[in-house]
Amino acid sequence: MRYLDIQTLLSEEPLLTEVTVKGWVRSFRSNRFVALNDGSTIKNIQCVIDFEQFPTQEIERINIGSAVQLTGTLVESQGQGQKVEIQVSSFQVLGDADPEEVKLTILSPKRHSLEKLREQAHLRVRTNTFGAVMRLRSKLAFGVHKYFQENGFYYMHAPIITGSDAEGAGEMFRVTTFDLNNAPLTEDGGIDYKQDFFDKETNLTVSGQLEAETYAMGLGKVYTFGPTFRAENSNTSRHLAEFWMIEPEVAFCDLDGNMDLAEDFIKSVIQYALDNCDDDLEFLENRLIQEDKTKPQNERSEMTLRERLHFVVDNTFKRVTYTEAIDILKNSKPNKKKKFKFPIDEWGADLQSEHERFLVEKHFKCPVILFDYPANIKAFYMRLNEDEKTVRAMDVLFPGIGEIVGGSQREERYDVLLDKMKAMDIPQEELQWYLDLRKFGTAVHSGFGLGFERLVQFVTGMGNIRDVIPYPRTPGNAKF
Ligand code: 4AD
Ligand code: MG
């Protein structure tokens, strides 16, 4: 007997054959109609049980949340809402779910807030919203690999435990095997990391970029795709302490090439989602339409979810220098009316997400690539421009998200990089291997990092980054 997942069953629709399905009960109406979902698709299959033919004790075990196996004939459905259904000839409850306990969980059939779902993160993938988000997340990850593999990139695995701070921002989680109450001390009373597992201080990586650079300078075009960790105390809807980053790095590529790559890559991955995830996108789109109805008119979005995705794919990203952006912001209405929390009064100011979102959502009304930022608000490794004030940095800004990509052309000149590191207090001993790259066949090279969860947020329309990763890590939260 064929055991098919519901996705396959619904796409093949082998009418009048006997089929077996396994899944979790979403609803059971009139002791007769089971809506079964197995996670393969957002769609449930309706299974019709003639309850008079089965012992009452067995029927009573069919409850919301229970795992069941059902066998029967696939027929055209008489009812509305589905084309086909299964006329059940036999069934077996594989795993019970006590209705009294289910009532207390998010599995119970009523609207639960996203906050409530987060409190039961181990169950939330059984809801339509999280099923859809997590299937999309998986497809997007595949779309990422597909793009790079089809464009001559090699997948490089950057280490998770590192001895350096790739961003120089000091936001690292320490890795140690010491008993913190009883760690060996140096003569001056500090912790003696020379006696630790790696004979030195180590931390979880904040970015695989520096290692990716070394591999690009041997394999030509590489990308990383892995978890990265930041101990930044940001409780926002865009920040996680553990997030997945995609970091391509390309030898002999300058900032223009880097911008082209970022734009082409993002469009291609979004197109992949549009081509392969229509059922889930449709569901999430309707979810947003419902959510919008609860908002005041001026906060509702002008486009539906899929319209927004098409809009990104079909339009050229606007490329603007930091200097131009500052001019626009300085003269903008919210700045003059003191509506920005951080007013813009001079060149050199770091841009906050309120500014990025103004540029994207109000001014240009399309994705924007800002480039040539002031050197002192960006990381040490970025290529210094001839003006000696700005660096070849770029950020891709998205509507609703703000920064989705950060990248740059890298400083390939040994002396310039060394001076910069000294000026920014980056310890040379720790990064001599990185400097060495500039000694042995240095070349122009560039890359960027895309925060995978921010991409998933954009594509699914989810407002909070905690709702696009299975088990979010944020300040004060690592329960599951
Ligand atoms: O701009 P960032 O810090 O750049 C880098 O890490 C570079 N080393 C990348 C490179 O050039 N190879 O981070 C890159 C992207 C951001 O644009 C954002 O999308 C995401 O990573 N990101 C975060 N996502 C979720 N939570 C956080 N705390 C994030 N911090 C950065
Ligand atoms: Mg950045």
UniProtKB/TrEMBL annotation:
The keyword Magnesium does not apply. GO terms for cellular component: cytoplasm. Keywords: Aminoacyl-tRNA synthetase, ATP-binding, Cytoplasm, Ligase, Nucleotide-binding, Protein biosynthesis. It comes from the Bacteria. It is an enzyme of class 6 (ligase). PROSITE patterns: AA_TRNA_LIGASE_II. One of its GO terms (biological process) is asparaginyl-tRNA aminoacylation. Transmembrane segments: none annotated. InterPro entries: Aa-tRNA-synt_II, aa-tRNA-synth_II, aa-tRNA-synth_II/BPL/LPL, Asn-tRNA-ligase, Asp/Asn-tRNA-synth_IIb, NA-bd_OB-fold, NA-bd_OB_tRNA. It holds the Pfam family tRNA-synt_2. Residues 134-470 form the Aminoacyl-transfer RNA synthetases class-II family profile domain. It is found in: Cytoplasm. GO terms for molecular function: asparagine-tRNA ligase activity; ATP binding; nucleic acid binding. SUPFAM superfamilies: Class II aaRS and biotin synthetases (SSF55681), Nucleic acid-binding proteins (SSF50249). It catalyses: tRNA(Asn) + L-asparagine + ATP = L-asparaginyl-tRNA(Asn) + AMP + diphosphate + H(+). Its EC number is 6.1.1.22. The keyword Protein biosynthesis applies. PANTHER family: ASPARAGINE--TRNA LIGASE, MITOCHONDRIAL-RELATED, ASPARTYL/LYSYL-TRNA SYNTHETASE. Belongs to the class-II aminoacyl-tRNA synthetase family. Homodimer. This is Asparagine--tRNA ligase. It comes from Aureitalea marina.
